[in-house]
Amino acid sequence: MVVSHTLGFPRVGKNRELKKALESFWAGRSDGASLHATAADLRRRHWKLQREAGIDLVPSNDFSLYDHVLDACALFGAVPARYGSRGGRVDLATYFAMARGTPGDGIAAMEMTKWFDTNYHYIVPEFSSRQEFRISSTKPFDEFEEAKALGIATKPVLLGPVSFLLLGKGLSPGVERRAALERLLPCYADVLTRLGSAGAEWAQLDEPCAVLDLPDEDRALFAAAYAGLAGARKAPRLLLATYFEGLRDNAGAVASLPVAALHLDLCRAPGQLGEVLPHLSPGTILSLGVIDGRNVWRADLEKALALLEEARGEVGADRVWVAPSCSLLHVPVDLDDEIGLDGELRSWLAFAKQKLAEVAALRRALAEGRAAAADAFEASARARESRGKSPRIHNLAVADRLAKVGDADARRRHPFAERTKAQAQRLGLPTFPTTTIGSFPQTPEVRSWRARWKKGELTTTQYEGLIEGEIRRTIEWQEQAGLDLLVHGEFERNDMVEYFGEQLAGFAFTQNGWVQSYGSRCVKPPILYGDVARPAPMTVRWSRFAQSAAKRPVKGMLTGPVTILQWSFVRDDQPRSRSAFQLALALRDEVADLERAGIPAIQVDEPAIREGLPLRRADRPAYLEWAVRAFRLATSGVADATQIHTHMCYSEFNEILEAIAAMDADVISVEASRSRMELLQGFERFRYPNEIGPGVYDIHSPRVPATEEIVSLLESAAKVLDPRQIWVNPDCGLKTRTWEEVKPALANLVAAAKKMRAAAPAG
Which of 5, 121, 488, 700 is catalytic? Predict the structure, then answer.
């Protein structure tokens, strides 16, 4: 029988109900019971929505109060000792301490990094060499029973045992990982047995690490893990889910595992179907992800059905399931609420709810023939034709300009060694110069100004006057605090990508297109549907005002081309590199205008450049070549004395240090505080040539770092880097923090820089 299912559904709610409940709880305005009530209501609504859309197998335990990898840590008792766990059930306080740290006693949060090549962040498990595991949460059982009480038999979702271990830190490859797996498997078997006893017929084990380049010893973990789980008593049948790439050289090891079903992402890697079929165990069901769970474009149902029919021809109709490519966590909830989008553009799009309908239509077509889903197929064909012919997609002037770009346009006039002298003379900064990443707290008052302005309750003159006042106060505070290179605070900006997209041709915007980035942090990605151009300056007015109000130099603040690309829903009708170059040219014009306005330093943030790195090493050189070129195209048109900064955060950068150096920014700032300067391991083998600010203040936690803690981090950096290279800065923008947290933290940061200067050798 053809079955439709989903791998996961968005958690935050279409109106960000979870975000609001979390932040109310963290602020002490509500209690745990209220938070759990909101979570239960969201789960109920989402389960019913999926069932009513025609999904046969609805997932449970895909919901999380913060992050599903953190949930796995809690479930299996992998709680670092610093949180004081005694081995019992992980309570809410410990759970959130692991995610966010604790401001009172200064316990640091666990490290956070990007979930593969997405903009979702996960909490990195911390394992010891003799890590013990025990069932320390009842969440998967509770949520299965919760759905069952509503009359919905769900498919519980768990992070698979191999990916859980590979995503963590602290276990060396080989013997330690294998031993940890042997200790972990009984816990997984216990969970599966309990779920089976409760009535679960299927359980989904997510193994996204199966699509990575794996050494033999890690690839062998899959056979050991699933052989161990195959004997679990009364366990549900297992669906092993892979996504974000093809299995490639792992196809033989994974497709032959003793599981009842295997999920493949045919949106990212449609060719892998032929690679997997020769290795598939007899009787194993193929779950095929043919609806894109990562983007918002309406599916080409004919193309998707052709893949499903190909698989049916090979294994039979009773062994083919229909699904999205991955969890729908990465797309907004419902297009129906987007009344601000015009009809033509809306007809090209599908959010999570609409993707459910596409999955259900494909299941009907595969099981009963196209006629059973004729309306859906006709709508898909009309949308494809409309989008292909629409004149709003292409801009001949943009194409002509891009065709004329040469290699010289992507190179600074002189090497860094010459530029740095001109910049030092212009800026006059001390050693260990201090700065911030760009944004300062977006208080409720500041956000209310923007909302009132958009509603027409404030005139543009009134609104801009309020923003100017906030900028002036922030400049004055930074100078009093002793910061060396100032920022204007970005109070006029709603989001670091959306703000720019709103001012560029080729973008559209949603009202409620929220997507979870981490915890309560949500973003509303723009929709990049056409060629990109900059009709007018975007930031010059605010940077010029800030510099006029300051006695010290002020940085201009832009978001880079690769990050705008990565954090948007990008058109899929041309190579991503072409869209990146279009964005780079638009930003090049903005950089030139900032320089003409007298701004001495310009930061072009690229936090997503590592995020966009292909998961397979063989695919990376081509990506890095065009990503680096896009950044250089955006930033290379300035004089030597104009200092170019960039910022990157929450990713593993060590493997692309050469490419980061090739970007040729004068100064880079990077996340380093949560990982205790782990980034420096890469600099021990690679001598980074320019200047760098390894982040010393974790802004994703409410705790205020002590001066001595920051000094310790800087001393670690100074052992690897030349002290003359080192900047002192937080690891990310301060938008989400409060002034009560920011002021003492930055005061400690400035004090630490002064201590480092005093201890530095003369000359």
Answer: 700
